[in-house]
Amino acid sequence: MIVVVAPGQGSQSPGFLEPWLEDDAQRRLLEQLSESAGVDLVAHGTTSDADTIRDTAVAQPLIVAAGLLTARALFSRVDRSRVGGVAGHSVGEFTAAAVAGVLTDDDAVRLVAERGRAMAEAASSVETGMSAVLGGDEAELAARLEALGLTAANHNGGGQIVVAGELSALAALAAEPPAKSRVVPLQVAGAFHTRFMEPAVERLRTAASSVTASDPTLRLWTNHDGSAVDSGNRFVELLVGQVSSPVRWDAVMTSFADAGVTGIVELAPAGALTGLAKRALRGVPSVAVKTPDDLQAAVDLLEGAE
């Protein structure tokens, strides 16, 4: 069984959509999604610099739109029925919701654009950020986080936990990390999936009340606890709550293993989730679809699945 996964914020890079937009149909799709999001995703995916696309209000709809472009291109080459399930990391859950049929592409980018604006506003009130902690003892890290007032926001598996909070506390953690660990600042503009984002939750809930959710037509796992969700309305509720609650990608990968997943295809901007899978799901083949040149490898993996 092959699963399709969609990455979260921080995976974007300047110009990463240029090769995709050489196809006129893909450019037209991105223009359509730009209208729905109220953001010029064509410019941000091709000519905007790193600081511009780091802005939460830009990065979130850009990443989701990139995943939808990739999915559209992939399913034009291989039957969607070959996919055994789908999941997204953080904002990638909006991509996953659209791929699974819970939301339309336009509703997904419309909602995620509102999410990005709401989270950017919440982040502007206090200088916060996120850092990845690689390796080390989890109990020692937990004690250090409590002492510094930081939160474990993303449990990513494979020896990686992303922590979040005020920048001064993150700097103190980096200066004195737990033994045998490394602290890497992330290119995000706030303490996502923590109490700092609570003001954004109600704003997204209001926006989500205007869309119609359908039940998923592919198996769909949630960041909430790694379980499969078969109700579209329930998945949208979890999308709203996810803004200020931890991402349990480690639990999602455990569910992949329990389900007998035999391969992973990561949608653009790809690389982060296949990297985690190589450590946590050793021996499971994966394809990171970064450019259209990677599509054939993904097709081959899907067509070879039993």
Question: How would you summarize this macromolecular structure in one to three sentences?
Answer:
The protein is an alpha/beta fold. Helix content is 46%, strand content 15%.
Question: What key phrases describe this protein's structure?
Answer:
306 residues; alpha/beta; Alpha-Beta Plaits; 8 strands; 15% strand; globular
Q: What shape does the CA trace take?
A: globular
Number of helices: 13
Total beta-strand segments: 8
Helix content: 40-55%
CATH class of the largest domain, named Alpha Beta
CATH superfamily of the largest domain: Malonyl-Coenzyme A Acyl Carrier Protein, domain 2
Main beta sheet strand tally, sense and closure: 4 strands, parallel
Mean of pLDDT: 95
> What string gives the helices and strands in order?
EHHHHEHHEHEEHEHHHEHEH
The CATH level-2 architecture of the largest domain is identified as 3-Layer(aba) Sandwich
> Which value, in Å, is the CA radius of gyration?
18 Å
Structural class: alpha/beta
Question: How many domains, in number, for the residues?
Answer: 2
CATH-defined topology of the largest domain: Malonyl-Coenzyme A Acyl Carrier Protein, domain 2
Uncertain parts: none
With strands numbered from the N-terminus, the spatial order across the biggest sheet is 2-1-7-8
Query: Hey, roughly how much beta strand do the residues contain?
Result: 5-15%
